[in-house]
């Protein structure tokens, strides 16, 4: 019931003749009436300023639907005054997230760039000075004056309370005026100043009259300097007009739920609705019109504008003074206007905010239902609610899994939850959302708020109530003799990774890379020119980065691009066109305009140029880049590596295959210089070309010595021997470790295409001594299972070699233990017979055809280390290993909204242990996805499988969505996902719907005819809760659902949720034998107050 004095209550209880009138105001939040607002703050240039701007944006202070009171707090780590004690969020300063009642402490959440509700925060221990400036909608914006007579500054006091504050404004002539200062704020965290027609103060005027117009308002506040932050929820100029003289009539419909004659009191939640008719009888003063956002705001006009707040009230004299009985606050929804200037307005209470706001995607587990409601409301910044529970409440179940549905509003998400648990949720006259558990609101021990009677009620000769019922209609809801509850329990497959499953699988996708085609200086902002490349030369000329915008990494600089340049010849006039393509529609538009060539191939081709949007993106620095690599290769050959058992070559080494495709010059335009080619076109398969690379970073004096060396290689798929059935197949390459000066001496890991191999092994290890003797080293490939098989052109092969050189006590080398990984496949070998001394050189081999090398690395590694897993013991213990590439430890932070690139260990920082053959430009792809199922999941990790060519730089996995940044870790185009060998997926445990379970109150041995009442539930998820709701329906509602509809003498005090008694002997209704809860009130005013009530027995 609306809170008033006893004197006012007695007027409606005992007076036969009551004089009432009505009044009201319309309050405009001028932030909602101006499109162009500039918000500024000072003192925000600090170490965390960029993060603060994303997590706590300044423009949030003028957003729509700001919290009406503090209490929703974001956690910010601050320095500790003592162990575990932080200045801004000390222990026990916030509410437990699973508490069931109304919190008495702030609710603590973690901020994030994607959170729906945000507020502004100043730096720690610093004073704040923020301002809002208003502009019109002209092409060249000018100042827009806002007429106001009230200004609200609302603080999130769970961080800090200002010791003093000042509100200022700037007039149209640029005069700055101080409106008010203060040293205190109210319980809602507000500093409010009012204009009474002559001056501004913190005292609200009895009647709002004139306004003052400003083009800018500002707020400054003093921090308490206790290690905390000043946070501002809202700064808004308001314009309040009095419409008391303009109200013709109104009607307010207040309901706890839509009355659908259900046996249960809570069905579909309902909003309070105001229907108001107004007219300006004195048209010489003000007029009523719809607000036009492009026009100046006229303070003499009454505007009809969406979300303007209408506050009607009833005025009654309590015997000594007039008292305003507020009937709530309502937000304009729609209106109509007559030709005479009158208007009919429909407005809803603040539940309209919940109906207009799409719920954020939320998954909670094992949480009481009232805590879930609180979590959902807090997520959008709706703080004006109150949770009411009984002292020993048994009606608040714990929901195993609750989640919001995609696209549903907050109101819709809470509908089913309240219905299933029979929770009442409605807005009272103070604009507070009252939330009642069923044990709290349907408690028969609650005290009666009012009595309605058809006869006078007296006590001790004193009248308590005069007759106040005009008409009464009683209904009996007869239902059945048993209750059936249908419920289900969602579940997951478990948290153990082995029981997890993909919750999202990428479709076929790839990542591009190539060499820098032209040098790029540090100031270039036009285009970057890239020669894209892949292991498949047949498609190189058609390669294009498959995204119209994104990021590129070159050395340690990230460049953001925003379009691809294409060239084509128009089919209409054969004119050459060069266009920048930024979206798919542009692509297909120009593709359709292009002519086809003589081979019927469309002339629409990428030029290789990409439009630069931003240099030095993601927190990197702009640098000059050129196309050269850091590798120096010395070529030698032919080198005879004929091993015992090989037939000697008797031909002429100068006789080469005659195919024109063997000419390297014909291939150079297709393959960029970031792939280093080693060629051999003679017909011998035992004479090799060797490219020798020296590593100054490798020392060979360590005893024992531990070494890691490797490369990434692939064979050309256009090499043609000219022989039948040998096109691009018969090729041999390899990698030499401990190489001699000309590449002949050393351990040679020979890799032959399957068709070109002269033995049963595609991989073999040769040893060539200083004397030139070549032998085959016995390895672990002894059967089909332990033998690597299948080497083909246009596929990349990572060759990673670990070597341990063992010495005796006299310092003599006794053994080289060699471990080779080919794409992770392990091959072991030992050399005990005069092992080769370590060397700091490696060789890039080609025995026939064309072999391309992506990079080469060589370094000393420790035997064992606690600081890194790049040590011999760790790597050699692996059953499978593949070098990840120099960019594998690069990361991008997404924590604070800005993407921040961290280079990790760079090529330069490797001190020469990594050699590249060109300046490679690598694509960084940002991917945002929604999981495949409509239900949420508990994500565990993002997986690229065994694909070491892709580096996952960052990922943000949430119950419904995921966002990730991935980078090409090679020098050429790679598959991110191809539906075969390479996969890219999010692995987790999906929340799955459980089967429907039935609970019935029927006795198993009962033979009576059953008339069950069925209750279908969405969120009841346990047998205990199903039994609880069934027992409650049986004991309080089943065949006890008496309802009463009454028209009573005008009473503006009754509200939904009130407990009343009814005294009507002719209808067998007595105050002493039954109580009723009010479910609906209709309050009207037209020449007086009229009231009708619907209530249910409890």
Calculate the mean pLDDT score and round it. Answer: 88
Unreliable residue stretches: 658-671
Query: Helix tally?
Result: 10
Helix content: under 10%
Anisotropy-based shape: elongated
* CATH class label of the domain at 634-876: Mainly Beta
User: What Rg do the Cα atoms give?
Assistant: 40 Å
What CATH calls the topology of the domain at 634-876 is Jelly Rolls
Query: What is the CA-CA span between the terminal residues?
Result: 17 Å
Major pleated sheet: 18 strands, mixed
Can you characterise this structure?
By secondary structure, the chain is mostly beta strands. Among the domains are: 175 residues, Galactose-binding domain-like (Jelly Rolls, Sandwich), CATH 2.60.120.260; 44 residues, no CATH class; 243 residues, Sandwich (Jelly Rolls). Helices cover 8% and strands 40% of the residues. The protein is built from ten helices and 70 strands. The strands form 15 sheets. The protein has an 18-stranded mixed β-sheet that branches. Helix 4 packs antiparallel against helix 5. The chain starts with 5 loop residues before the first helix and ends with a strand.
